[in-house]
What we know:
By secondary structure, this protein is of the alpha+beta class. The protein has 9 helices and 15 strands. The strands form 4 sheets. It has a 5-stranded mixed beta sheet with strand order 1-2-3-7-9, sandwiched between helices. The longest helix is centred in the N-terminal third of the chain and has 25 residues, at 24-48. The mean pLDDT is 92.
Amino acid sequence: MKKSLWHRKLEVLESRLNPAAPQYPSVKEELRKCMAGMEGEKRLYYFLSELNESFRLLHDIRLPSPNGVTHFQMDTVVVSPSVIFIFEVKHLTGHLIFNRYTNQLIRGNQTFSDPITQVHRQKRALEQWLVKPVPILPAVVVSHPNARVDIIPPDSADREFIVYPMEITSLVDAKINGRSPLLTAKEVHEISGALLKHHRPYDPGILKTFNIHPDQIQTGIRCTACKTFTVTKINKKWTCASCGSYFKTAHLAALQEYVLLFGPKITNSDLRAFLKIESRSITEKLLKKWRVDFEGTTRNYVHILPDADKQ
Ligand SMILES: [Zn+2]
């Protein structure tokens, strides 16, 4: 399972943001949430892998809403010949209360946006998106093994939308049982392909999101052995000035990190400042090798590196 673009951006930001920055705790917390979400989806996938091989499994799909302005994101989508399932995964530990009067998910004194309402909204958006009508069944997966669930009122019909990972295969079997297939294998494939094709990853400028100034970002090439940003070119070899380790591609990781934080456009002097390299010819060589395009004039020459989601 691939990490989302947002997850990768958070990892890079967490590793490069000055730990003394006031935004550091919120970056760490957002990364923790992303990691927990991924853990939950992995648990779900473990059980979904037992499903019939004619089903298609899609992870983290974000599509334009029917209104054309916003987007809707689905954690896991299973396309079968007779039903499409949308699973919203909640990887939270502790006592979770789904209050159906207030449409809230409550844990202790925390409230979360209601995943049952969310997954129904996703269902309505996906319905308008499909060319051929196929029943869509939404569910919220409570994936953490240490979660305990209550619903208010206890006899709420919405209880059927809350499932645990180990119930997934029997739920899917029960919902499919007795329905005749509406889609051919080719159509299942086509729908999945269309969902992937129109997927637009959540991709805001991460520095802007956390209100971070570029000065708060640690520059240099990181040594994977001693974690300092002190790798530089010594005698034609990328070498860590702190511990003496050699690297073949440490500079490429730094280039990818640059794109994740600042976007794909870069000038030679931006790159020299980011990699802490004085030699213009070293960075020029790197840019010429890795750029996919360029723009501007000789005085203001901008190299365009591959997009982060294509790397
Ligand atoms: Zn080192």
